[in-house]
Amino acid sequence: MDDRRKHHRKKIAFPVRVSSAGGAQPFRAECLDLSVGGMGLVSKVAVEKEAVLQLEFSLASNSASSTPFRVTAIVRLVRQMLQVPEPRFAVGVEFLKLTAEQKRILESEVMSSLFMI
């Protein structure tokens, strides 16, 4: 299988608050996996490919901080999932303009799962 990803991914589930640059009503999505480069989400709300989103969430590795993790991301993939009774969408986003501290926190979170026995 051809895996073109640049970063390791961690299967993880947590809520994500999503808002768009267009000022639409924020909505909640669920994280499915996380990497230093981006995140896979499941959402009840359809988003457009290439849309720029603001994401806000909390990470276990950053639990000492009461400040939510905030990052800008661009939508790279949107697929409608076959789920009943209501449609859901698989959304892949790429993080944009991470600070050095944000990269460190994400690396810590993702790498923690690689060394667990």
Task: Give a written overview of the molecule.
It contains one helix and six strands; from the N terminus they run E-E-E-E-E-E-H. With 117 residues, it is mostly beta strands. It has one domain (10-111): Beta Barrel (Thrombin, subunit H), CATH 2.40.10. It has a six-stranded antiparallel barrel. Strand 5 and strand 6 (88-96) form a beta hairpin. It is globular. The mean pLDDT is 85.
The figure for the number of domains is: 1
- Percentage of residues assigned to helices: 10-25%
Shape, principal axes of CA atoms: globular
Give the H and E element order.
Answer: EEEEEEH
Per CATH, the architecture is Beta Barrel
- How does the major sheet shape up? 6 strands, antiparallel, barrel
CATH homology-level superfamily:
predicted glycosyltransferase like domains
Q: What is the count of β-strands?
A: 6
Spell out the key features of this protein.
117 residues, 1 helix, Thrombin, subunit H, mainly beta, single chain, six-stranded antiparallel barrel
Question: Would you spell out the secondary-structure blueprint of this structure?
Answer:
Elements lengths: L9 E11 L6 E8 L3 E6 L8 E6 L11 E13 L6 E9 L3 H13 L5
Antiparallel strand pairs: 1-2, 1-4, 2-3, 3-6, 4-5, 5-6
